[in-house]
Amino acid sequence: MTLIDRYILRTVLGMTGLVVSVLLVLAALFTFIGEQGDVGQGRYTELSALTYAALNLPQQMWELLPIAALIGSLLGLGVLARGSELTVLRSSGVSVARIAGSVVIAGLVLVALEVILGELLAPPLEQAAKHMKAFERFSNVSFGSGGAWIRDGNLILNVEELAGARQFGSMLLFELSPDHKLRAIGYATRARAAQGKRWLLSDYAESRFTPDGESAGGYRVLTQADASRTLDSNISASVLELATAAPRELRTRALWSLIEYYRANSLDPRAYLFAFWSRIARTVAIVFATLLAIPFVLGPLRSAGTGSRMMVGIGLGLAFFFMQRLIESGTIVFDLNPVVLAWLPTSVLALLAIVLVARAR
Description:
The protein folds into 2 domains: 3-138 and 268-359, no CATH class; 147-243, Roll (SH3 type barrels), CATH 2.30.30. It is built from 11 helices and 9 strands. The chain has helices at 3-34, 46-55, 57-82, 85-91, 96-137, 237-243, 252-264, 270-291, 293-298, 306-333, 338-359; strands at residues 147-152, 155-160, 162-164, 167-168, 171-176, 182-188, 190-193, 198-211, 219-232. Strands 1, 2, 3, 4, 5, 6, 7, 8 and 9 form a 9-stranded antiparallel β-sheet that branches. Helix 2 packs antiparallel against helix 5 (96-137).
């Protein structure tokens, strides 16, 4: 790595770190304010809300890093342009491609940081924040509205989200016959994973439909209620832990495991496919976000102030963010190809960056 690489790397990373710090402070503030409605419930205090906001910072940093990389690159290279340092480099025979190579190195460092955040830090800390909030708000633990539908052979299970280690909320069971007719409906207020792939269901009640011999095609409904029931299943606690979490909260490896499970059970894996490829695509997008700053600072923003470069960076970053969100909704609603659409925002960003850098003078 040459002196030029180190200088540009230090400038871009320094400005990106400053932008990330400002964005995280704002994100933590908004999260803390949003938690005020829950303060006072159970043992959930102001300190708890502050802890909750702090534990969510890695996830928010993971989401904001592509935007911060673009803004930080614009500000960092803009400082070099206004100080005529880029002009001196160009006059010394350093090409735009050579400068772009140095910027790409900075982008790769940020990609490594994004991977560490997304695969090691953010998912477990966000889950810890949710569990801490649930246990402190309710003395006997209350479960949120999140949950998952899981198919296990002739059983279809609806399970509420994870509340603690190997413990879940209510479980709703639909038992089907081999010809897909409804045999029984069961409900348990709580489900706990036992040894192997067995589940202990608390306060279990069941309605079973049996053919009525006195009337052709008729059915009788037999009901029973038990204090507990043991359910033998092919679904492990680890699968349910993944399925009850939002796709954006899961690591790449966990998403791929769920995709394979859904495919093996003839279920629709589109939401997890999109989340899987979107995580990879948005990480790659960081390199092109830093690269996109070059044509702006060598062109229309060469002599512009910090405010102008900041506004351009925010505008481009928000456009990228909203394109991702819009495409995420369209993938599920309109039955579109999740892999193609997951890469679409990054592909547009990459094409724009490469074309503009190639035309920069």
